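Input structure tokens:
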């Protein structure tokens, strides 16, 4: 093995199988890691290797490239891409094996040169985390960075984000930011070093969206599994709805805002848009973090609610069954919460459709206990909204606003489809 270097293309023969791929950095000296043609990395223990055949000597990739000299084009909008991490934003440094955000403007433009025809790109790595590690504190940090960029002249913002919790961040930014420009979150299900990567098309589409005369917070991702178009989803009406498909993000209980063709750069609006009227930006990052989301299931132990109440939680969103129900066995726990001044709201775990707590006596009982129905708001959005309301208002006002539409999170008439 010592005769081979990172970047070399080799075939490793083990007792049962041959593996062909490019040598990657390995953190364990007893394991050789190769990236195979299908994009997956595989680690093979040196003691299982019968022989290695060199197919091609590779070049060690280097990222210390000279700065690009790009002239700002007067007729193009100025777009800031803020990266927070996740698959869309990462690259492996072949010298060290470390994963870095690839988001200096130069790195981005080298990877996706088409961006130069769409906008003047400025970029910054704000965080470098997988989005499962996102927190409300980071949401605030992102909101503050967006404000700075807009005040410094950005006409639109793209946030590169891990997909797992992108819809929570989109919701948080929707409530915290009142901006006259588009703020577009974008992710990728497959990283850019895989042949099936969706990163470039998603990014191109997000930048196209960020140059439009619209305002608000959106998510852009593949519209179908093929490389054909992307959807522009409203930030408070979208959800990661598949663990691996490239079109994992679906607008729920509403249709997407627009269809974006990354090849022709055309955008087709599917519903009324919120027109941008200037470049004002105001943020309110007050959030009450002691808010919980509880999923109902047969046999649930209601003491989980007491736990939250006794630990100082100010609000609980229940992801109830069907039209907004819980087992009767936990009514007393819910009463304990509302009697102690905790705001309790109900969203449905069916995801599609809306709450109606007037149909069955169960729902009516829950209303009597003070539970507020969240109409057709997604449970994740209800959680973030409750954090926002309890961070800014007293419980009575928060209760009053919980089932009123503030930023598009509740639609008056349900559309039962997801797109
Ligand atoms: N787990 C990753 C994340 O959400 C997946 C991705 O980047 O899409 O950050």
């Amino acid at each position: 093995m010592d005769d081979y270097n990172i970047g070399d293309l080799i075939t490793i023969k083990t007792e049962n199988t041959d593996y062909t791929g490019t040598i990657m950095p390995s953190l364990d000296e007893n394991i050789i890691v190769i990236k195979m043609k299908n994009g997956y990395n595989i680690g093979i223990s040196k003691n299982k290797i019968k022989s290695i055949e060199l197919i091609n000597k590779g070049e060690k990739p280097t990222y210390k490239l000279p700065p690009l000299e790009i002239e700002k084009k007067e007729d193009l909008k100025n777009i800031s891409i803020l990266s927070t991490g996740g698959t869309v934003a990462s690259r492996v440094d072949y010298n060290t094996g470390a994963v870095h955000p690839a988001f200096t403007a130069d790195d981005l433009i080298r990877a996706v040169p088409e961006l130069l025809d769409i906008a003047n790109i400025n970029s910054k790595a704000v965080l470098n985390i997988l989005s499962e590690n996102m927190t409300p504190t980071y949401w605030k940090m992102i909101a503050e960075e967006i404000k700075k960029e807009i005040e410094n002249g950005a006409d639109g913002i793209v946030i590169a984000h891990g997909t797992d919790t992108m819809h929570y961040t989109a919701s948080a930014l929707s409530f915290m930011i009142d901006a006259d420009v588009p703020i577009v979150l974008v992710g990728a299900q497959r990283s850019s070093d895989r042949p099936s990567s969706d990163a470039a098309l998603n990014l191109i589409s997000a930048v196209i969206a960020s140059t439009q005369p619209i305002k608000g917070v959106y998510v852009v991702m593949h519209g179908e599994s093929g490389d054909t178009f992307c959807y522009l989803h409203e930030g408070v009406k979208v959800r990661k709805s598949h663990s691996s498909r490239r079109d994992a993000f679906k607008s729920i209980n509403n249709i997407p805002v627009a269809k974006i063709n990354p090849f022709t750069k055309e955008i087709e609006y599917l519903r009324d848009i919120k027109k941008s009227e200037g470049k004002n930006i105001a943020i309110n990052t007050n959030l009450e973090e002691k808010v919980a989301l509880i999923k109902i299931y047969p046999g649930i132990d209601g003491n989980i609610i007491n736990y939250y109440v006794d630990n100082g939680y100010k609000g609980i969103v229940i992801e109830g069954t069907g039209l907004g129900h819980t087992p009767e066995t936990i009514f007393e726990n819910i009463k304990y919460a509302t009697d102690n001044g905790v705001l309790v709201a109900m969203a449905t775990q069916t995801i599609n459709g809306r709450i109606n707590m007037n149909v069955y006596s169960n729902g009516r009982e829950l209303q009597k206990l003070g539970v507020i129905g969240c109409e057709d708001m997604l449970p994740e959005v209800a959680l973030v909204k409750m954090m926002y309301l309890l961070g800014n208002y007293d419980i009575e006002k928060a209760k009053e606003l919980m089932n009123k539409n503030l930023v598009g999170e509740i639609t008056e008439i349900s559309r039962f489809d997801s797109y």
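The mean pLDDT is 91. Residues 291-402 form a domain with the Rossmann fold fold (CATH 3.40.50.40).
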